[in-house]
């Protein structure tokens, strides 16, 4: 139908201001104190008894996409070095996820995907978007905890390199766009983990 100009709402009442990280922290701390918010830790998410990981710098693991991975998560043995699998229809984007746990801490980590091939046809690596999970403090509106906040997965962000602190897990999402004209079949490829350009894991 036609656009009714009388229904157009003005937006000149919106006022945006840029503030520094220190100002943001001060405002947040003041609001939490005024409203009596309190921090809580994420649930314990680690194997018992503890595992001595073969590579204390970089341990790659994967988990059901519907299950959380906290910064403090430590991988279970059955999650380590497992292949990533997905099923998709044509012209859809299919998510895959992995996580990198570093017992000792590690710097300058990059994640690169290869082309996917079924032996005769290829899905280009350019069709694979790789993003990291950014964690942040958020209020937890669960029962009896409406004034609690904790560090949880907040949003996805593009990246070139990662620094992972000791004892921390970093979740990574890969979004594979399947072309509308892709041939059917089983496609295989690699996700390669580099440090300063040197291959650590594939």
Short descriptors:
mainly beta; globular; 202 residues; 6-stranded mixed β-sheet; 4-stranded antiparallel β-sheet
- Characterize the main sheet: 6 strands, mixed
* Mean model confidence by pLDDT: 90
Shape: globular
In total, how many beta strands?
A: 12
Account of the 3D structure:
The protein has a six-stranded mixed sheet with strand order 1-8-7-10-3-2, with no helix packed on it. It has a four-stranded antiparallel sheet with strand order 9-4-11-12, with no helix packed on it. A two-stranded antiparallel sheet has the order 5-6. The protein is built from one helix and twelve strands; from the N terminus they run αββββββββββββ. A hairpin with a 2-residue loop joins strand 11 and strand 12 (198-201). It is mainly beta and 202 residues long. It has one helix at residues 21-34, and strands at residues 38-39, 59-61, 93-102, 106-113, 116-117, 122-123, 128-140, 148-158, 162-164, 168-177, 191-195, 198-201. The longest helix is centred in the first third of the chain and has 14 residues, at 21-34. The chain is globular. Helix content is 7%, strand content 36%.
């Amino acid at each position: 139908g036609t656009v009714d100009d009388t229904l157009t709402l003005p937006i000149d009442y919106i006022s945006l201001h840029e503030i520094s990280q220190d100002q943001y922290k001060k405002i947040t701390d003041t609001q939490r104190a005024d409203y009596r918010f309190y921090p809580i830790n994420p649930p314990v998410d680690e194997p018992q008894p503890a595992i001595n990981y073969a590579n204390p710098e970089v341990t790659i693991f994967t988990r059901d996409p519907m299950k959380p991975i906290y910064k403090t998560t430590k991988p279970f043995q059955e999650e380590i070095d497992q292949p990533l699998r997905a099923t998709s229809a044509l012209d859809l984007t299919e998510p895959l996820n992995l996580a990198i746990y570093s017992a000792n801490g590690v710097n300058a980590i990059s994640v690169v995907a290869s082309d996917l091939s079924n032996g005769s046809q290829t899905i280009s690596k350019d069709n694979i978007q790789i993003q990291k999970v950014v964690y942040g403090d958020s209020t937890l509106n669960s029962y009896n905890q409406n004034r609690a906040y904790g560090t949880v997965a907040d949003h996805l962000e593009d990246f070139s390199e990662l620094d992972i602190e000791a004892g921390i897990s970093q979740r990574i999402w890969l979004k594979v766009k399947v072309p509308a004209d892709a041939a059917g079949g089983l496609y295989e490829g690699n996700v390669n983990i580099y440090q300063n350009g040197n291959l650590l894991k594939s």
